[in-house]
Specification:
heterodimer; A: 244 residues; mainly alpha; B: 221 residues; 86% helix; elongated
Chain lengths: 244, 221
């Protein structure tokens, strides 16, 4: 399948079908998700209404992690199989992923201040999420620091693969260490611990975040592929002009 | 083996000839540590509490400028191609270069730690453990620096980039190194954080030679 998608024109045709679909699914999941999250789900018995930050905080965290994992997979495709669109995919996913990581940290901070009495704490979960944000930023800076685009892509790919060790650390940090952040409640051995009245809105918001991510990534990929075509056209025109 | 020995001797010789660089590195280490008591105040109780942290931050900041020159000179003079042409596997050569870098950068830092600890009112108790942790920690930092230096070969503003790449990944080393030093200083069991430090550095040892070799090959294209 990935060989099939390696042709940029073919990929763009398929992307042009998927993208409006992604926006549609985003709207379809966002609207009921927001409704259930803010109006039709129970307030927490201890935290009251502020628990509703969870419906933004948790999907953002999931997307930040998924974004990095996808970028690392793209890095593997680029380095090992030299897939021509893999580096464009990785570059496209960097900023949305970083944005989600930032939103996770900010919403977590806003949640922590009234609930746990602190804006920040250096426990394993928060520190490893901060490292994830820095890895995103480092990747974005690195890939654009080279004069040749492919050098930047290769360097960025190596960085992504080196930093992938952070993902299991983030996931299992609440199990391995004594953290202020609560333990795993949704994706855990033995099934989720959340009641359906809260789980449904959470999953709806998570789906909304994912399809937004897909739509935005496809838009950014289209832009980057267009830029690449433009560069090669300009280069060949310069070549052609030199032969006159 | 012959090739590795030659690479090691060459790096050590270059380091010895450019001793001013090494001394500059140690001076930077000393400078940072000297500034802290001036800023924090001479109260030894406060200094003792923060001494392990300052020692480790100073070690991290002092190794950062040195990381750039791990490969820069080789790249500029064409030595990179020679490295790639050595018949031995490139990861092994990278390992040798890390060993040379540690002897030139990490070891002096470790050896000056007791002296500088005095400036920070660091008690002599547990100093052996602190030095061991520093030795291993600086080895880990240099491995991170080696990956970053290979990644940024040919990039603009490579020095800043190295800092951006190394500092987040160096956080675990910093955290566990300071925890080990603190425990050793207070006479408590330093084994748990020390074993974590060791685990992190061993993980880096598993990753660094191959990541660096891959980056060097990309840089030489």
């Amino acid at each position: 399948m990935f060989d099939y998608l390696a042709n940029p024109a073919r990929f763009q045709r398929i992307a042009n079908v998927i993208r409006p679909l992604a926006w549609l699914i985003f709207i379809i999941t966002l609207l009921p998700g927001l409704y259930y999250a803010f109006f039709n789900s129970p307030a927490d018995y201890q935290q009251g209404e502020t628990v509703r930050i969870m419906y933004i905080h948790v999907p953002s965290a999931w997307m930040a992690l998924m974004g990095y994992v996808l970028m690392a997979v793209m890095a593997l495709f680029y380095l090992v199989w030299k897939h021509p669109l893999a580096d464009i995919a990785a570059r496209s996913m960097a900023l949305p992923g970083a944005a989600f990581a930032f939103i996770t940290l900010v919403t977590g901070s806003l949640w922590g201040a009234p609930m746990w009495g602190t804006w920040w704490v250096w426990d394993a979960r928060l520190t490893s999420m901060l490292i994830l944000l820095f890895l995103y930023i480092g990747y974005m800076v690195l890939v654009d620091s080279f004069d040749r685009e492919d050098r930047g892509s290769k360097a960025g790919a190596v960085l992504l693969l080196v930093g992938v060790i952070n993902i299991p650390i983030i996931k299992f940090s609440v199990d391995w260490w004594n953290t202020l952040h609560q333990g795993a409640s949704v994706i855990r051995v033995g099934g989720s611990l959340i009641d359906a009245s809260m789980l449904i809105p959470l999953l709806l918001m998570a789906a909304a975040a994912k399809w937004w991510f897909i739509a935005i990534t496809l838009i950014r990929m289209r832009t980057l592929m267009g830029e690449r075509r433009l560069q090669s056209r300009l280069a060949s025109r310069r070549e052609g002009g030199a032969h006159d | 083996m012959q090739a590795q020995w030659a690479v090691l001797k060459r790096d050590l010789l270059l380091g010895w000839r450019g001793l001013s660089d090494t001394i500059a590195g140690i001076s930077f280490f000393v400078m940072i540590i000297a500034l802290v008591p001036l800023a924090v105040g001479p109260d030894t109780a406060t200094l003792t509490v923060i001494a392990p942290a300052i020692l480790w931050i100073a070690a991290l900041l002092a190794t950062l400028p040195q990381m750039e020159r791990l490969f820069a000179r080789d790249d500029a003079e064409g030595g990179l191609d020679h490295l790639l042409m050595i018949p031995a596997p490139l990861p092994l050569t990278v390992l040798t270069k890390i060993a040379a870098a540690w002897l030139l950068i990490g070891l002096p830092l470790t050896l000056t730690a007791p002296l500088l600890g005095m400036m920070l009112a660091l008690p002599l108790a547990g100093m052996a453990m602190v030095m061991l942790a520093l030795a291993i920690g600086t080895f880990g930092l240099l491995m991170l620096g080696m990956i970053a230096a290979a990644l940024v070969l040919g990039a603009r503003r490579g020095g800043v980039l190295i800092a951006i790449l190394v500092l987040p990944l160096a956080m675990p080393i910093l955290i566990f190194g300071v925890a080990t030093s603190q425990a050793a200083m207070l006479g408590e069991n330093a084994m748990p954080p020390f074993q974590f430090l060791l685990a992190v550095v061993l993980l880096l040892l598993a990753i660094t030679p191959w990541a660096t070799a891959m980056s060097l090959r990309h840089a030489a294209e």
